[in-house]
Amino acid sequence: MKLSAAFWRDKCVIVTGASSGIGRALVESLSACGARVGLVARRADRLQELTAAIAVRGGRAAWSAADVTVREQVFQAVASLESALGPCDVLIANAGVYRKTAAREFDAERAELVLTTNLLGVVYALGAVLPGMVRRRRGHLAAVSSVGGMIGLPGAAAYCASKQGVVTLLQSLRADLWKTGIGVTAVCPGYVDTPMITDEERATLRGLVTADEAALRIAWAIQRGRAEYWFPWWTALEVRLARLLPPRLAARILSRYPEMEESERGEG
Ligand SMILES: NC(=O)c1ccc[n+]([C@@H]2O[C@H](COP(=O)([O-])OP(=O)(O)OC[C@H]3O[C@@H](n4cnc5c(N)ncnc54)[C@H](OP(=O)(O)O)[C@@H]3O)[C@@H](O)[C@H]2O)c1
Predict the structure, then answer these.
(1) Does the beta carbon of 117 lie inside 6 Å of ligand 1?
(2) Using CB atoms within 10 A as the burial measure, which of 31, 85, 211, 223 is most buried?
(3) Atom of ligand 1 nearest to the CA of 46
(4) Domain locations in the chain as residue ranges
């Protein structure tokens, strides 16, 4: 799996959630391939520092701080990045949060935060770039969902619902945009070693994917025009098999899995 500099060179790529983890790794690897990268997240200090580091290495980058749960902020951020870097060729809507929303202590406010960030955050970013792409009849929309978007995991009702929402949102847009020249990619990673996962998960999970490898796989999926891309393969296989089970049997098996916990090192 290799990134093609010929594909990425001079493309304007806007990445949300660029201050940490997968988003940070994405802007670093894409700028190394010659892309002009636009960084969006809330923590301005981190965006500024990363933009400066990319410039020192000879890359072209710009940043704009925005909270993806606030539509006007996302639209303003995209407008400011497009005026600095040119029209957006590729959007990677990656910003996301994990909050536990287990049934016993179900908290609608926490669920709302997760759904607003992970689903509406993607909707706002798409809304900001899509009219321009449709006018130009080219571009690529990508969003980072999760294997949790393909099956409801214990403790993670809102997270899984938000990530499933992203997959079906993109499925519909892909059909609408068929043969328009605009590509649509939904990426569904398993566990990736970023501040989002807990120390216990980091210590116990086998075959944890690094943020750099996740970024490489996501960029490769976009470059190849993949509609959906699940990784790593063993997690994708487990989920595909689990989806074949009758729902009551699946619930019985999944009830024995540990609930997904929140990391204390996650986004600020
Ligand atoms: N790590 C995993 O195991 C895993 C697995 C599957 C899918 N994913 C998905 O991958 C994506 C990236 O997560 P990560 O693992 O790289 O976690 P991370 O290191 O915690 O990064 C999350 C990013 O999202 C940004 N963000 C969160 N809320 C935001 C908001 N309201 N407005 C703007 N930006 C916001 C954060 O920036 P600020 O805090 O600076 O705003 C940060 O840059 C997420 O969508 C996540 O659900 C992760």
Answers:
(1) yes
(2) 31
(3) 40
(4) 7-254
Amino acid at 249: L
Q: What homologous superfamily does CATH list for 7-254?
A: NAD(P)-binding Rossmann-like Domain (3.40.50.720)
Could you tell which of 63, 64, 192 is best to mutate to test the pocket of ligand 1, judged by most ligand atoms within 8 Å of the CB?
A: 192
pLDDT of residue 166: 98
Is 98 one of the catalytic residues?
no
Q: Which of 33-47, 72-86, 113-127, 252-266 has the lowest mean pLDDT?
A: 252-266
* 8 A C-beta contact, residue 146 and residue 114: no
The span from the first CA to the last CA of the chain, in angstroms, equals: 33
- The answer, yes or no, to whether residue 268 has pLDDT greater than 60, is no
Using an 8 Å Cβ cutoff, are 29 and 57 in contact? no
Mean pLDDT of 182-208: 92
Instruction: Evaluate: CB of 266 within 6 angstroms of ligand 1.
Output: yes
Residue 174: Cβ-neighbour burial (10 angstroms; 0-12, 13-18, 19+): middle
Radius of gyration of the chain (CA): 18
Q: Which atom of ligand 1 is nearest to the CA of 98?
A: 47
**Ligand 1 centroid from CA 180, angstroms:** 30
Kindly state if the Cβ of 22 falls inside 6 Å of ligand 1: yes
What are the tens digits of pLDDT across the range 32-54?
Answer: 999 999 999 999 999 999 999 99
pLDDT at 60 over 60: yes
pTM over 0.85: yes
What average pLDDT does the segment 260-265 reach?
80
**Ligand 1 near 186 CB (within 6 A):** no
